[in-house]
Specification:
The chain has about 100 residues and is an alpha+beta fold. It has helices at about 25, 35-45, 80-90; strands at about 5-15, 45-55, 65, 70-75, 100.
Length: about 100
């Protein structure tokens, strides 16, 4: 199996104990996972979605990270915000309105 062109990390706030305690979980980040997966398939994007433990950006949550660009997005709390990020991905761009920054 070939490796995906993009990996999308979605913070689900899970801690070592397994309990979802953070902002991302409380704001419904995990409930967006099926929508993100459907959109990736519908758009024909070569991407994989991964739910993660806490990404330590709680004040900016829900948080999503897109690799290999290493772009961090905050306030990803709706289908509209997911659409804006995926639209930018399709164009090879960054959704500036939700971008927290790009790590080196």
């Amino acid at each position: 199996m070939a490796l995906p062109q993009h990996t999308i990390l979605v913070c689900a706030s899970f801690r070592v104990s397994g309990d979802p305690q953070g902002v991302c979980h409380k704001k419904g980040a995990a409930s967006l996972l099926p929508y993100i997966e459907e959109e990736i398939l519908d758009r024909g994007l070569d991407a994989q979605v991964v739910s993660t433990g806490c990404l330590k950006q709680c004040e900016k949550g829900p948080v999503m990270v897109v690799y290999p660009q290493n772009v961090w997005y905050g306030s990803v709390d709706s289908e509209a915000s997911v659409d804006a990020i995926l639209d930018a991905m399709e164009e090879g761009a960054i959704c500036q309105e939700l971008a927290l920054g790009q790590a080196p």
